[in-house]
Amino acid sequence: MSSIRKTIVVAVAENGVIGRDGDMPWRLSTDLKRFKAITLGKPVIMGRKTYDSIGKPLSGRPNVVITRGAAIDHPDVTTVSSLAEAISSAEALARESGQDEVCIIGGGQIYAQALALSDRLCITHVETVVEGDAVFPSIDPSIWRAGETIAVPAGEKDSYPTRFVVYDRR
Q1: Which domains does the chain have, with CATH numbers?
Q2: What pLDDT, on a 0 to 100 scale, did the predictor assign at position 144?
């Protein structure tokens, strides 16, 4: 049985901020399109706060939500109580649908736990410093090797320019 790659997908400001008051502190239409392209068809793992901020399951992909509260009653959502359970469930969903990757999409607490378990990081570096209450851990270059890098100027629906970088575990 081939292993399923675990990929973190996140947009991070220069000061590590990824969120503010349960939302993203920017508008990045270009990045949302890339996020959809990366995650479509693959199981996505998120915490309950991230799920609540999105407001509904992401279409076109199985949603696995980690929560200590009540289960989410929706046919496209699997509710679990830990990251380990989420990964196990998402990997099973990936195998069922012929996918070789699961995507971990937030928020801050989930990223902090998942970093040590992940194989790849798809990071959108947002070229600004913003105030926020959710942060992403620093990326240790002795553990992560930056590969493909794409500079993305701010489009008309983007608050800031970004740099998209794929990191693989060394």
Answers
A1: 5-169 (3.40.430.10)
A2: 98
